[in-house]
Amino acid sequence: xxxxxxxxxxxxxxxxxxxxxxxxxxxxxxxxxxxxxxxxxxxxxxxxxxxxxxxxxxxxxxxxxxxxxxxxxxxxxxxxxxxxxxxxxxxxxxxxxxxxxxxx
Length: 104
Known about the structure:
The chain is mostly helical. Helices cover 43% and strands 8% of the residues. A hairpin with a 6-residue loop joins strand 2 and strand 3. The protein is globular.
């Protein structure tokens, strides 16, 4: 982990409440990616999820109401994949390699 990433991780700590939930979605992309990694880390690579199940994982990780924003960004940044009709979601294994520079 480089110095810049460790600075972002330290700043990101202020975005979480005492329950460990994200209270505000970060505006800086590196901080968003680190926060999304935390959420994606709660998903099992071998499991298929419904949209409702993905929403529950996100809801358990955030203290604000925009679950859809987080889910869209998880898809956009390739933390999760989904069928076109949204009936099935899964954790993408490739995100760990793609974002390894942000890993703990």
